[in-house]
Amino acid sequence: MDIGKPNSIHHFESPINALSYWSIKKGKLQDTRLVSMSGLKRQTMVDEIKRMGKEGLKVNQITFCTDNDNAGREFAHKYNKLFVKVKSSVYLPMQKDWNEELNMNTKNKSVSRKEINYKE
Q1: How far apart are CA 8 and CA 86, in angstroms?
Q2: How many Å apart are CA 35 and CA 13, to the nearest integer?
């Protein structure tokens, strides 16, 4: 999913996590491409970087938004270290994955609204 004219890529383990992240960060994301690797697939990551180049887009930033579990953290940190010509970072959810993060945020907002209405 492209937001604006992408010059950065955010890599996720699944489409639902990419969409959940977008829902959380809506309005704050600009000029980025959200990509599902359908797991932890190095080749999908490489192919997407190449695809952006073929589309005439320059990749300035790569962000790994994998699950916050052992496999996700290991993948993100391993490949984050490999990029030297492009700025890269790891941004993990506080929960297990971005969908759980979205559900927790939604739940907390609902609780806050109920508390505000109750106090009125």
Answers
A1: 10
A2: 8
The proportion of the chain whose per-residue pLDDT surpasses 70, expressed as a percent, equals 90
pLDDT of residue 116: 39
Token pair 């699950």 is found at 67
Cβ proximity of 42 and 64 under 8 Å: no
The HSE-up count of residue 92 (CA atoms within 13 Å, CB side) is 16
**13-32 in b/e burial notation, b at 16+ Cβ within 10 A?**
bbeebbbbbbeebeeebeeb
Residue 99 has pLDDT above 60, yes or no: yes
Amino acid identity of residue 62, one-letter, is I
Residue 114 token pair = 């109920």
pLDDT per residue over 40-91, tens digit each?
Answer: 999 999 999 999 999 999 999 999 999 999 999 999 999 998 887 889 999 9
42: which 2 tokens?
A: 């190095």
What is the spatial order of strands in the sheet that 8-12 belongs to? 2-3, 32-36, 8-12, 61-64, 87-90
